[in-house]
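User: Design a sequence. Structure:
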């Protein structure tokens, strides 16, 4: 009994923070409370002697619980669009950059929740944890089963949507599909200059550990280097919707083996995440185009 009381005493100071994380993820005070309660239950069943950083452990768990709830529920958040964020959830621990904090301060509240509802679950988690609670990308990557680089891409994509900087063309899957189809055509035919023209000069291609094990370089920088990586290849790749954005996948026997998650701005591909870890692939919201 004394041990349980001691664990409860250690947990309680973290409750407001956990409720804030869960509420930003779920947009519902009732669901946030459920997520916090589930986090407490998991803590009570865990060997706490192996937990070095209780706050970090709890944040990771409540984020994972919230992500599971977000994916499994059949409807949007319960609170109405005009709801006021509860007082004890207003204190958001944003990053250290004053300009970023100012942007976030302006967007805390019901308006932000409306925008967050437009994000894919993994995007929402990456943005909430990193931009609002300064959780490092290596920790976020663990929650979403992706590399830190891929987690950073998710947060960047979400940030552009939240701040309203996505161009209409970039948000339109039809326009994205045009770029991706042109990319595939140039790749398959080995049209190097056409490939370069589709890529941002500062494009970054990042591969996860499984993709590196398959022979991909971990990082490729610049349009010409990335074009050389794809020129004359991608023969079996297919366009697909990946977490709401158009990219390409390699499917074998009806199962996706590799996904290339594109970020497209101003009709240029600015980032490609090559994802091959089975857990990561299973976690993607994928629709392969015929």
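Assistant: Done.
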């Amino acid at each position: 009994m004394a041990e349980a009381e001691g664990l409860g005493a250690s947990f309680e100071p973290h409750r407001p923070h956990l409720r804030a994380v869960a509420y930003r993820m779920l947009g519902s005070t009732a669901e946030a409370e459920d997520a916090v309660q589930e986090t407490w239950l998991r803590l009570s069943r865990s060997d706490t002697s192996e937990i070095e950083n209780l706050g970090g452990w709890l944040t990771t768990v409540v984020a994972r619980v919230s992500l599971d709830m977000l994916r499994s529920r059949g409807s949007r958040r319960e609170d109405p669009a005009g709801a006021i964020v509860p007082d004890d959830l207003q204190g958001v621990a944003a990053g250290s950059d004053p300009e970023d904090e100012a942007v976030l301060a302006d967007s805390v509240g019901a308006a932000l929740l409306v925008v967050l509802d437009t994000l894919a679950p993994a995007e929402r988690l990456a943005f909430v944890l990193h931009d609002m609670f300064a959780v490092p990308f290596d920790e976020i990557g663990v929650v979403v089963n992706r590399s830190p680089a891929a987690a950073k891409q998710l947060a960047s994509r979400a940030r552009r949507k939240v701040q309203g900087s996505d161009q209409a063309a970039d948000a339109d899957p039809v326009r994205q599909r045009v770029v991706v189809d042109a990319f595939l055509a140039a790749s398959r035919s080995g049209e190097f200059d056409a490939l370069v023209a589709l890529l941002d000069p500062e494009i970054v291609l990042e591969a996860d550990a499984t993709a590196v094990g398959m022979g991909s370089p971990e990082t490729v920088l610049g349009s010409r280097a990335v074009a050389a990586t794809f020129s004359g290849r991608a023969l079996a790749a297919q366009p697909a919707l990946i977490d709401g954005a158009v990219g390409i996948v390699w499917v074998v026997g009806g199962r996706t083996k590799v996904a290339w998650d594109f970020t497209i701005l101003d009709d240029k591909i600015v980032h490609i995440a090559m994802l091959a870890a089975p857990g990561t692939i299973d976690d993607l919201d994928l629709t392969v185009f015929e």
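The two ends are 60 Å apart (CA to CA). Residues 37 and 101 are 29 Å apart (CA to CA).
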